[in-house]
Amino acid sequence: MNHLPIPLGRNTDLYEAASMPKSIKKLGVHWKKRLRISFLVIMMAAILAPLVLTWTGNIWIDEKKLAAVQQSNSYVKLDEMPDHVWKAFVAIEDHRFMQHPGVDPIGLSRAIWIDIKEGAYVQGGSTITMQLARNLFLTNDKTMTRKVKEIAIALQLEQRYSKKELLEMYLNVIYFGHGKYGIGEAVPFYFGKKAIETGDRAVTLGEAAMLASLPKGPERYSPVKNWDRAKQRQAVVLDRMNELDVIGQSESTLAKNEKISVVPTAKRAGK
Fold first, then answer.
1. What confidence score (pLDDT) does residue 42 get?
2. I need a surface site. Which of 22, 130, 194, 240 has the fewest CB within 10 A?
3. Which long-range contacts (CB under 8 A, 24 or more apart) does 175-183 make?
């Protein structure tokens, strides 16, 4: 009896597929089709979600509040303050501020992961633009609804304004504790000078780092309430600026040892 030789490298997958029942073949085809459709849906959602959120942001923006920001008597322009002031805030609050579109996927993902592990809202993952959105138009309620609104408004603000304009508004609306909002109110309150002063009266690097420590906990890190805690947080800001090469090690050391005079309570009260 003659036997047909089976060639080496035989395509067994093809052979087995040919012998499969038709129902199994159809199941495989349907599975692949569903996979392709699911992939397309995910891709479309990834593209459309930011567009929808950006458009939705208009709904939650109060145009009157937005217009009133720059009309405040204590409003300080970015060019009127030393560069190390805004650099301190960017370094500690949102060092990818110049790169992201209003929402930092890396920072937000990390914050969500930490919140899930801790079982509570430990980190917000808010960018400077998101903080601006919250301070202007939203409450501080730690809910998913507020976070979605915050993201939507931030994306819309990024479409309307330059990074410089957004950073300027942020510095003029954030809360610094003791009922003071914005850098124009905070500098006189804490240090007895104006944010726009120059020369020997200009805001120093040490003072800027102390101010930049306040958004995380205005009352907790207030140099008026707790000097030691304020100095510890100031060191964190200066170390972060050094780590990001915003300042050198020598500048950081000098700023940490800088003598900072906080306005006495009696003088602040006008007594």
1. 45
2. 22
3. 175/135, 175/215, 175/218, 176/211, 176/214, 176/215, 176/218, 177/214, 177/218, 177/219, 177/222, 177/224, 178/218, 178/219, 178/222, 178/224, 182/72, 182/74, 182/75, 182/76, 183/76, 183/81, 183/85, 183/211
Three-class SS of residue 131? helix
Give the tens place of pLDDT for each residue, 184-197: 999 999 999 999 99
Q: What share of the chain is helix, strand, coil (3-state, %, to 5)?
A: 65, 0, 35
Where do we find the tokens 């060191």? Answer: 235
Q: Which residues contact 193 (CB under 8 A, 6 or more apart)?
A: 187, 201, 203
pLDDT tens digits along 125-152: 789 999 999 999 987 777 778 888 898 9
pTM of the model: 0.75
Assign 181 to helix, strand or coil: strand
- How far apart, in Å, are the Cα atoms of 205 and each of 83, 94, 256? 9, 18, 9
**Which architecture does CATH list for 30-270?**
Orthogonal Bundle (1.10)
65 within 8 A of 136, measured Cβ to Cβ: yes
